[in-house]
Amino acid sequence: xxxxxxxxxxxxxxxxxxxxxxxxxxxxxxxxxxxxxxxxxxxxxxxxxxxxxxxxxxxxxxxxxxxxxxxxxxxxxxxxxxxxxxxxxxxxxxxxxxxxxxxxxxxxxxxxxxxxxxxxxxxxxxxxxxxxxxxxxxxxxxxxxxxxxxxxxxxxxxxxxxxxxxxxxxxxxxxxxxxxxxxxxxxxxxxxxxxxxxxxxxxxxxxxxxxxxxxxxxxxxxxxxxxxxxxxxxxxxxxxxxxxxxxxxxxxxxxxxxxxxxxxxxxxxxxxxxxxxxxxxxxxxxxxxxxxxxxxxxxxxxxxxxxx
Length: 308
Description:
Blueprint: H1 2-62, H2 84-122, E1 138-144, E2 156-161, E3 167-168, E4 173-176, E5 183-185, E6 191-192, E7 197-201, H3 204-209, E8 217-220, E9 241-245, E10 248-253, E11 269-271, E12 285-287
Parallel strand pairs: 7-8
Antiparallel strand pairs: 1-2, 1-11, 2-7, 3-6, 4-5, 4-9, 9-10, 11-12
């Protein structure tokens, strides 16, 4: 009986041990499965979160809407754009666009300057900042062909610009009526202001010696020339002086043919009708009656006519 009791006790112990082992194995497997399940779930959650965020990020690259505001809360699981990065990128793009717009304005300004420069160049009227005269825009308004002093040194003519702007006489030609005829090509830079009355002297020193005001003498046409080459204002019926541009007469004073070639010594003739046509009519000329200064010859050099 004692043997049977011992056997029963041993059997029970054996059964309890087997159960314990079985329970321990199950418990360990369950723990591992739960751990694995937890890791997989976490990984899966992270993967899903990345997929969603990536999709939103890709959408943001292509379809940004002006004025759209990112959440910017800094939580990568709830902020699709992570706030700061996209906002900074958007701000940078906006700044770049603004810079490009500024460059466009600068280019437009440069174009305006260029256009302005082109306009300034296009408005240049020619040498000397003026234009060549048309017929009648310059008139020979007075002629001293028989001075009381030395001829031809004290001879002079007066020119008047009837135009509203300056006229450039550079390259134009003066021609007298003597035989043989003499010509003189006017030097470069000879410009007459609008409305001005100026004196072209045979020689400046001779005109000033005859008391012509120095300030009105702007040109001399015979200085340094031999007698045979000098322009001469004749005292006879052949007396004439004309201003030519090519073959075109710009101004004329053919005074000899008008019966004005026998004026007394020291008396100029003056044109009172200041046109090219008027210069061809004897009645439009008068003989000067008053000295321009005390002790001078008679006339109005550098001033309008005093014809009655």
